[in-house]
Amino acid sequence: MNPSFKLILIILISFEISFTRSLTANCVLIAVCLIYLMIHKIKLKTLGIVLLIPVIPAVALSITIAFFTPAQDYHFALVLFSRMFAYVLLGTSFTLINSPIELARSLEQNLHLPSKFAYGSLAAFGVLPKMKSTILTLQKAALMRGITLSYWSPKLYFKALLIAMNWSDELAQAMLSHGYVEDTTRTYAATIPIKSTDWAYMIVPILIIQPLLFLLP
Amino acid sequence: MNLSNHYHVRDIIFITLIGIAFGAIFISTNFIYNFLTVVLTPVGLAPMANDINMGIWVMAGPLTGFILRKPGAGFLGEFLAAVGEMFFGGQWGASTLISGAIQGIASELGFTLTGYKVYNWFSLCLSCLTTTIVTFAWDMFKNGYAEFHFGMLILLFVVRFISIFFFGGILTKMIAALLDRSHMLAKFGGSNV
User: Which stretches are transmembrane (chain A) (predicted)?
Assistant: First the structure.
């Protein structure tokens, strides 16, 4: 399925379930996403980790809604509980299967996002692991001088911003030296087409989910 | 003041990198969120963990808006951070993107209200206030806040504002002052904080 269309579908559904209170629809979404991920042979371990993360907030929020609100609405507590898992599974149905580069290409070609946004952010996401280790290095280096740089210290953010500035300069120069020119028409090495099936894959699920969301409890 | 409202590829990389760098810093605060959630659940205040941490999560918005001084910078700072989080942190899935867009619009609104002309405590506080109001309204639906009684809502709102004001206001101002002293921002168009 076309990545842009898939993203739009996922965002639309996530947005809709935020405003509706259908336990059935949430459960159907969870089941469909699980089946979809299984078909794409996602490792059970990865899936397990994904499902483990929302457990604490989901349980805590449903307990609060069920026992500490004036209405003590058990149904709504379950809706919120299932909603968290639906969000996560909808998201992973995208992120575990489509790569950022596919999305960037598709957004540029299919939705006409300016290429500087598509490739600029992609370039930045490319150095994400390096950024993580650099932040750790900053903190460790400060510790060696007896200074603790915690998440509330302005100095830590200041240093991180200086790094972001330097790297953005370097990455932009690297892109320019590879022949990237912003605001010009580009040719595509890999074209991402919009097929008629892409439209069907987007519209049919949206149509199916509506009655579930609005008619079933 | 800013010379141009046009975004170059370098600005976009810079904004995304800010989001990523802050994300890398915030990862270490996840355990605080989980700890607070577990501790606050028995007393019926579990959602407060959200509000206490909210300032950390939305900080990229007011900060980029304040230091880059371009229309859209506050939105992009927050939204691009959410895109990164969706692919690499991953846990909140698609709702990260929606929350990111809403938080981005929320912090951008504060600067929009001053017409992108004033960049001082006032505009920063305004951005913190719009961020609190808009994200709170979103949680009325998303996290079922509408179910709580009035007293609790007031408490959550105040806690959220304090958190956003600390991280998005006070901390942002301190970071901006450090940047100003370093004269590094001049090439990105910001100055005279």
Answer: 6-39, 46-68, 74-97, 199-216
8 Å CB contact of B18 and A76? no
Structure tokens at A14: 């996530």
- The residue written with tokens 């949430």 in the block is A26
Structural domain boundaries of chain B? Answer: 9-188
Q: With contacts defined as CB-CB under 8 Å, which chain A residues touch B18?
A: 160-161, 164
Burial of A193 (0-12, 13-18, 19+ CB in 10 A): exposed
Instruction: Name B134's Cβ contacts closer than 8 Å, sequence gap at least 6.
Output: B102, B103, B105, B106, B109
Average of pLDDT values for A131-158?
Answer: 92
CA dihedral (B108, B112, B114, B118) positive or negative = positive
A93, A128, A161: which to substitute to probe chain B, counting the most B Cβ within 10 Å? Answer: A161
Rounded to the nearest 5 percent, the helix, strand and coil shares of chain A are 75, 0, 25
Sequential pLDDT tens for chain B (193 residues): 344 678 899 999 999 999 889 888 887 788 888 899 999 988 888 889 989 999 988 999 999 999 888 899 999 999 988 888 877 665 666 788 888 999 999 999 999 999 988 888 999 999 999 999 999 999 998 888 888 889 999 999 999 999 999 999 999 999 999 988 888 777 665 544 4
Nearest-Cα residue of chain B relative to residue A81? B143
Distance CA B89, CA B86 (A): 6
Residue A196 C-alpha, separation from nearest chain B C-alpha, in angstroms: 25
Q: Measure CA A182 to chain center.
A: 26
Instruction: Break chain A into its structural domains and give their ranges.
Output: 3-105+193-215, 115-177
